[in-house]
Design a protein that fits this description.
By secondary structure, this protein is α/β, with parallel strands linked by helices. It has a single domain, classed as Rossmann fold (3-Layer(aba) Sandwich), CATH 3.40.50.2020. It has four helices and nine strands; from the N terminus they run βαβαβββαββββα. The strands form two sheets. Strands 4-3-2-5-6-7 form a six-stranded mixed β-sheet, with helices on both faces. A three-stranded antiparallel β-sheet has the order 1-9-8. α3 links the parallel β5 and β6. The longest helix is centred in the N-terminal third of the chain and has 18 residues.
Length: 180
């Protein structure tokens, strides 16, 4: 898999060090509130596991399966919820964890549906990566691990056609891999 990577953006230790900082800030921000985390599957699994072990607060965890890429490198424009019901978060303070903020469509759809149907007390967003680009939906993250340019990245949970998630670092996928 390493041979398919054009260049490494963030090594494992750099990622883990940044997660220490994010967790400290989240712990501080939720010091007087009970936290409910909703992780967006499948991309956020590695991020979720490593971040949550660092948060020094009691929390509850749920997951939601949502997709908009459907195997390609560009958002399809359609957000698909893979389950019919949402986690029970009525009156709770929710932190949504996702791997990447790109077009904003997926996180916008999740927040809109949560607020309309599940009635949380608050919703904040934490992403591992935030692309520096114009978004299709107005959406920003409250917490972000790293800002990146508009490149196709894999590793540490991020995938291309369900491959590369298990790389311990984040790298730019060679263009010929996804344009062949």
């Amino acid at each position: 898999m390493d041979q398919d990577i054009e260049r490494t953006l963030f090594h494992e230790q750099t990622i883990l060090s940044r997660l220490d900082e994010l967790a400290a800030q989240i712990t501080l921000d939720y010091a007087d509130r009970e936290l409910t985390v909703i992780a967006v599957l499948n991309g956020s699994i590695f991020f979720m596991a490593d971040l949550l072990r660092r948060i020094q607060r009691p929390l509850s965890l749920d997951c939601i399966s949502v997709s908009s890429y459907h195997g390609g490198t560009e958002s399809s424009g359609t957000v698909t919820f893979d389950q019919t019901s949402l986690p029970e978060v009525n009156g709770r303070h929710v932190l949504i964890l996702d791997d990447i903020l790109d077009t904003g469509r997926t996180l916008h759809a999740i927040c809109a549906r949560l607020n309309a149907e599940a009635h949380p007390a608050s919703v904040r967003i934490c992403v591992l990566l935030r692309k520096n680009k114009q978004r299709d939906e107005e959406m920003e993250a409250d917490y972000s691990g790293f800002d990146i340019s508009d490149e196709f990245v894999v590793g540490y949970g991020l995938d291309y056609q369900e491959r590369y998630r298990n790389l311990p670092y984040i790298g730019v996928l060679k263009r010929e891999i996804f344009t062949a």
